[in-house]
Amino acid sequence: MAVQLNRVPYKWIVASVFVCGVFMDIMDTTIVNVALPTLRVAFHTTQASVEWVVIGYLLSLAVWIPASGWLGDRVGTKKVFLFALAAFTIASAACGQAHSLGELVAFRVLQGVGGGMLTPVGTSMLYRAFPPIERARASTVLIIPTVLAPALGPIVGGWLVTDVSWRWIFYVNLPVGVAGFIIGFLFIEEHREPTAGRFDVPGFLLSGSGLALVLYALSEGPERGWTSFSIVGTAVTGVACFVALVFVELRKRYPMLMLRLYKDRMFRNANTVLTLTYGSFAGVLYLLPQFLQTLRGLSALQSGLTTFPQAIGVIVSSQLVGRLYHTVGPRRLVIVGMTGMAAFTGCFAFVALDVNLWWIRGIMFARGLCMACSFVPLQAATYANVAPSDTGRASAIFSTQRQVAAALGVATLVTVWISNNAATLTGFHVAFGTGAIVVLLGALSGFLIHDEDAAATMRGRVPEEPLPERDATLQRGDGEAEAHDTNGRDGGSGFEQRTAVPTGEHE
Question: What is the dihedral angle through the alpha carbons of 261, 265, 267, 271, rounded to the nearest 10 degrees?
Answer without folding.
Answer: 120
